[in-house]
Amino acid sequence: MSITVDQISRQFGNTVALHPSSLDIKEGELVGLLGPSGSGKTTLLRIIAGLETPSAGRILFSGRDVTNLHPRNRRVGFVFQHYALFRHMTVFDNIAFGLKANAHRLSLGRQEITERVNELLGQIQLEAYAKRLPAQLSGGQQQRVALARALAVRPEVLLMDEPFGALDAKVRVELRRWLRHLHEQLGFTCVFVTHDQDEALELSDRVAVMSQGRVEQIAAPAQLYREPANRFVFDFLGTTNSFKGEVRDEQLYLGEQGTLRLPKVANGAAELVTRPHEISLSHSPSDSATLPAQVSAIAPIGAVVEVELQPFWEAPNLHVTLSPRDFEQASFAVGDTLYLHPHRLMLVDPHSTALTPVS
Amino acid sequence: MQRVGDSLPVKWTLIVLALVLTALVLVVPLIEIVRQALAGGVGELLDNLTNTYTLSAIWLTLLIAVITVPLNVLFGTVLAWLVTRFRFLGRRLLQTLIDIPFAVSPVIAGLVYLLLYGRNGWLGQWLAGYDIQLMFAWPGMVLVTLFVTSPFVARELIPLMQAQGRQEEEAAVSLGARGAQLFYRITLPNIRSGLIYGAILTNARAMGEFGAVSVVSGMINGVTISLPLQVEQLYQDYNTVGSFVSALLLAMLAVLTLVIKGLLEWLAERRQQRHSKVAEDV
Amino acid sequence: MSKPRRILPGFHLSLGIALVYVSIILLLPLGSLVGQLADLSWARYWSIITDPRNLASYRITVLSAALASLFNMLFGLLCAWVLVRYTFPGKRILDALMDLPFALPTAVAGITISTLYASQGAIGQWLGFKVAYSWLGIVVAMAFTSVPFVVRTVQPVLEELPASVDEAAITLGASNAYAFRRVILPFIWPALLTGTGLAFARSLGEYGAVIFVAGNMPYKTEVTSLMVVTRLQEFDYPAAAAIASVVLIASLLLLLVINIYQARFFRRIHGNQHV
Predict the structure, then answer these.
(1) Structure pTM?
(2) Taking Cα atoms as reference points, which of C26, C38, C28, C25 lies closest to residue C242?
(3) ipTM surpassing 0.85, yes or no?
(4) Nearest to residue C108, comparing CAs of B146, A9, A252, B226?
(5) B236 touches chain C (CB under 8 A)
(6) Which CATH entry fits the domain spanning A239-357: 3.40.190.290, 3.40.50.12780, 2.40.50.100, 3.30.2420.10?
(7) Regarding the domain with residue range A3-228, which homologous superfamily does it belong to in the CATH classification?
(8) Are B235 and C118 in contact (CB under 8 A)?
(9) Does the pLDDT value for residue C1 go beyond 50?
(10) Is C75 within 8 Å of B209 when comparing Cβ atoms?
């Protein structure tokens, strides 16, 4: 089932939780809504489920207008942030709940319900826990039960609110893979909310980045990272290095100390941004390495080495990541002066904050 | 937000049902008290109010409250401090013990005091040797009221102090605070509303206790008749108006108790809202 | 294991005060009941408590209390639900009124109910059957005095029920009735049962409100607490103590059962870690 969000907005009193937003989600697609808290992502998800009423706009499921349809009749699976398992029911009864509540409509017998629940228990690998109560399960297990409960009625749409938010890092990664696998198997359309960029980028076919009640960009993960639409998306997806200065004759002047060649950039104030891995460092200045900075901290973090540098001009510290091998070859220490060579830069539009690559 | 039972017909059916039933069960009796007290006109009401027996009943009722409330506030606070701030052998037993007056019929409360301090009771006999008689006199009425109202303050404070934990007090001790200072500066501000509420409940029950007090009172006119006892006495004497005048006094006390309780809750709610608002702004 | 150091002050002082107070106010008087009972022979004790008039009073007390508690179970659940789930004008007043039976002296409640439900009374005249001076009057009095128990026990538990649990049931396609029966009722069931149990315990011992309405006819409308007072007025202390012990044991057992049930349920739902 495809989902169309058509100019949906939501106001609570005077505060706008969601500005008019539109999204097209294709059948079988896995879409992540990514944004900081208060960005309106959960509101949007709840509006799709029918748990929240939009102030204006329409929701369509495969072209059918469901805006005024009670959530009871929308037949979407919803996984809640803290699972909302029924604490007094066993794992089995939790999963069977939707089937039993609709036994009439679905014309399901006791036998069929038992079979279907057992099948789901197998899929979530909790056959042995059927008789346990939610309180006797770990967080990861509870999360899987919540998912099975939502999937039991075979919804064509699965919505998840911060599905892995309350779990520790390792369980989270495992569950992500498992969900990806399940999605490939069952083919439901899935929308989930997260504030974790890794989660969004790893799981989703497409990611919608949201901020202050607006969808800033919706794109495939690779494209999103490579071509962020604006400054917010760029900042939200990783660490930002910013160069602010004055452009004169295709040359960026950063105070007295640094200059940077910028072909085809108009004169005037300008800001450019770059990622930590898009800068290389050298001990001596050259045509390309023109920006002096002093190493203020070095932190080896697993697969990369993070270097923090204090630029010679008036500006916040810069961050550069190197592979451990490159770091060993470069051989420098805290206090050394190095010269920066950014090999990929994005120019920030001062009004719209849109980004354009500079070559 | 969608919750179970939010559809308008369900909602309003239930609200109306609750309001009608409450009106029948709780409001109609209140109105009836006023109606009966005024049945003989305002003049008769005032006559009954200012008659010597009523005045002495009011006086005795106040006396009982004035002794009972402070003692049980003190006891309740000490007990709450003890069971929420320390772990020791018998802590749970102590907590169960102080709940007993809730479970005991007031009549039985009166009875056990009569058995202990009465003419045949072993403490009663001993006291009689010094010409002290507690039963069928006001000290006995105070004693049973102490028994009946002993759990109220502790009951309010224990959950409150448990929820607050002892970190704040421990922090204060580590900063050098001492006993009384610790209590007045750290503990008291946190439990003030619970303490006031407990005191109000204690007061309401102390002034209104009937069963336990009636057993040990002896019903001596103008001496050991408190307001609730006077309500009974006049009612049995077919002086309905007089009985309802005293009842009206007690009912007004009850309504006042509810108003103060509501006010305290409203204030606490407002404070909490303000706090959460501040937290949001930060 | 070494003794844990007590960081906060006042342990010995508060322990001392608590023990002295509990002993004087609680234990000594309750002990005197045991003392009085010890003076009775078993045969005499048995003949007192199985006296036909007393037996009739147990039956009346238990039946009336059960009926009153049943009413309060439904009424309390309705009020708790309405107070937690809905906003409407007058909600604050309704909430405050729930405590009226605790604040209003029982004697006042007794004479008022008796006057209201008398055959000429404001309510009694409209009823085709006798309430005051019959066992129905006892039920009304007991129901009135124990209104707050169910409301005040269920209310906080219902407040605790997260909205997402309702929403989960709804998104799974459950109807209002189904969701209430299968999800919400089981959640508040222990509180509902506890509140009803407390109301029942209170009704068993109720005296003040009941005696004015009951008519107090032997074998017909005498409650057990009245039997205690009747024996006392005859200065038959041993008999009063014997009957009292029956009421006392019944209500203490009831409380014990309620506490054990609550603890077990709490463990089931929250797991062992927090107990």
Answers:
(1) 0.87
(2) C38
(3) yes
(4) B226
(5) no
(6) 2.40.50.100
(7) P-loop containing nucleotide triphosphate hydrolases (3.40.50.300)
(8) no
(9) no
(10) no
